[in-house]
Amino acid sequence: MLPPTLRWLVSGAIAVLVCCLSLSRADAAVFRDRASFNAASQNLNTIDFESTPNVPDGLGFLELDGVFFHGATGVPSIAIGQNGNKLLRTSTALEFTRLTIFLPPGTTAVGCDQFNTPMILAISTGETVTMNQGDASTFVGFVSDQPIQSLVISLDFPEPTPDVLLDNLSFGQRRAGNEPPAPQLLATNTGRAAALDSVVTTSETFSILAVHRLSTDNRTRITLFVVGVLLGPADLPFVTVQAEDSQQRLFDLPCEATGRVKNLSWMSQVTCRIPDELVLAGNVNVSVKVRGVVSNKAPLRIE
Fold this sequence. Notes:
Blueprint: H1 4-18, E1 28-31, H2 34-39, E2 41-47, E3 62-64, E4 67-71, E5 77-80, E6 86-90, E7 97-102, E8 109-114, E9 119-123, E10 128-131, E11 139-144, E12 150-155, E13 164-174, E14 184-185, E15 195-197, E16 221-227, E17 239-244, E18 250-252, E19 255-261, E20 264-273, E21 282-290, E22 293-294, E23 298-302
């Protein structure tokens, strides 16, 4: 399950997504074989449900790796397929079947193997595919230049409609030629930078001096969260963080650690130190640069 200190990073996004499920037309590429989908994507993470505990999050959703699943008849369950593999199942409500998958922020590529047909798959950017019983492929993938917030698998015919059986859900980002992946700095639903004190995991406001003085210099370190890139400790030399104050002055926040977020394979974290020059700076806009590619900017407050 999602750690409590990180649940707030996606809870606001879920509230927004529930209100935005009406589909509008967009230009997303559709793939019916996984190899072509993989070639058009990058930073893919895959949930295969083999080691999935059937434990709901208490809010009517099943949460796995920060991905939220919601069925028309309640929380989806884990089923055993014909080959003994584990599948995600959403039971029919007789007249209709519906599984809604809320994807992580920054997702622009999503694909899955889906076994019961017929079934209709639709993404929040507007693209729709109907899987028929005569199809040679059980795979559907979508790649878009716009964020894909949700994937909906549904059917309202014939009656009774079949259950949804889902396997190998993959999600990541669109591959744009030879361009390096772009980092996206996560923000809360109020537009503020998603940042935590690296020691006590509290959110803004931050100060120069640490509340709990565990470091020799007694300075505050903050952790920023990014998607679109997969960072490990070896990537530290290629990551920089900058803050811009109200007078458009730029300040470097020395980076001290990079890595993946525990239990959230698609999210990376960057830990940096607040420099003395930012004392009483108030609101500043921070950004993260990875291998020369700069992220969006998001505000945080330093006092």
